[in-house]
Amino acid sequence: MTLLSVSSLGVTAPGGRALVSDLSFDLAAGKRLGLIGESGSGKSVTSLAVTGLLGAGLVATGSVLLDGVQVVGGAERRLVPLRGRVASVVFQEPLTALDPLMRIGKQLAEPLARHRALRGAALRVAVSEALAEVSLDDARIARAYPHEISGGQRQRAAIAIALSSRPQLLIADEPTTALDVTVQAQIVSLLDNLVEARGMALLFISHDLAVVSAMTNDLIVMSAGVAVERGTVAEVLSAPKDPYTAQLVRSARDLDAMLGER
Question: Which residues form the ABC transporter domain (predicted)?
């Protein structure tokens, strides 16, 4: 079953500047797709467009079907039920994605109550279980505000919130960029295990070829808002066709070689 179908997607900024041009792809239930490219390549804008979360002034054209519902130009009242239940997003910077004035436990309780109709003791148990699932089983985390915990703990909390509604599709938009290297590896492993355990579809967005290759089966390489190459991870890594993709692969291999010499 096709969960997300994107056809000829375009996104323009004020003044008509194209941020994404003629992008098409399908993502079936349980499958994993990576979008990779440098900053400004259009990959994060794509994640916002497919969930109907584009900022003011940005205009989307083309077609995006999320669980059969038209997102581009679709009525907001039809899109709200899709967020959380069908698709959830883990953003790059958890400190800005989380509400700074609300305790972590309460932020997690809201989607649990809204989407799973939990109340009272059942809701409290579900909050504890959701935090434990992302290895945040310290009771103080639920009572803490976002600024009172570490960056890695904030991102784990954000993942718990995104998964609390049991979505069919998880969109991870640069989920490790704001973290140090050790914590990055922990978060990638956590996401990999949770997506596998729940059988979710995954749209993983990053500039890091090694991370995307480890997390996904298929890749779309974006440059200046255009998909310049696509294929399986093995195809793209072994025989890149576009010069930009070839440079990404060379850079990743050079970095691996440099780290191996240490």
Answer: 4-249
Q: What is the token pair recorded at 238?
A: 């072994």
Question: What pTM does this model have?
Answer: 0.93
The rounded percent of the chain whose pLDDT value lies above 70 is 97
pLDDT at 13 exceeding the cut of 80 = yes
Q: Let me know how many helices (H) and strands (E) the chain has, helices first.
A: 12, 10
User: Beta partners for 140?
Assistant: none
Buried b / exposed e across 170-185, counting CB within 10 Å, b at 16+? bbbbbbbebbeeebbe
Beta-sheet pairing, 169-173 with 201-206: parallel
DSSP secondary structure code for residue 54 in this structure: P
Classify 2-78+89-259 by CATH class: alpha beta
Please name which of 134, 128, 171 lies closest in space to residue 154, comparing C-alpha atoms.
134
d(CA 64, CA 160): 26
In the chain, where the domains are located? 2-78+89-259
The alpha-helical segments, DSSP class H, found in 151-240 are: 151-163, 181-198, 209-215, 233-238
pLDDT tens across 58-112, in order? 999 999 999 999 999 888 888 988 999 999 999 988 888 999 999 999 999 999 9
What angle separates helix 151-163 from helix 120-133, to the nearest 10 degrees? 130
Q: Ramachandran region of residue 80, left (φ > 0), alpha (ψ -120 to 50) or beta? A: alpha
